[in-house]
Amino acid sequence: MAMVGMIAGMALGFAGYFGGFGAFVLVAALGAIGFVVGRFLEGDLDLGDFFRTRENRRR
């Protein structure tokens, strides 16, 4: 996981350096979306986790 984090950090650094702040934000947002989709496809994340209310989470 450390290697993946390092590669993601390098990609963000390159995007920020060569593309400016807008590219940095775009790469960060797409990386976050990719992370969530990957966790969902692996089965580590349930889609219902995003739509439950606070009251239902405690039960």
What does this structure look like?
The protein has 59 residues and is an all-alpha fold. It is 76% helix and 0% strand. It has two helices and no strands. The protein has helices spanning 2-42, 54-57. The longest helix has 41 residues, at 2-42. It is elongated, with a radius of gyration of 15 Å. The chain starts with a helix and ends with a helix. The mean pLDDT is 79. The chain crosses the membrane at residues 12-37. This is Small integral membrane protein. Keywords: Membrane, Transmembrane, Transmembrane helix.
In DSSP terms (H or I, runs of 4 or more residues), the helix count works out at 2
Shape: elongated
Q: How many angstroms does the end-to-end distance come to?
A: 32 Å
Characterize the biggest β-sheet: none
Note poorly predicted spans: none
N-to-C SSE series?
HH
State the secondary-structure class: mainly alpha
Q: Taking Cα atoms only, what radius of gyration do you get, to the nearest Å?
A: 15 Å
Give me the count of strands.
0
How much of the polypeptide forms β-strand, as a percent range? under 5%
Averaged pLDDT: 79
Portion of residues within helices: over 70%
Organism: Streptomyces aurantiogriseus
Protein name: Small integral membrane protein
Transmembrane segments: 12-37
Keywords: Membrane, Transmembrane, Transmembrane helix
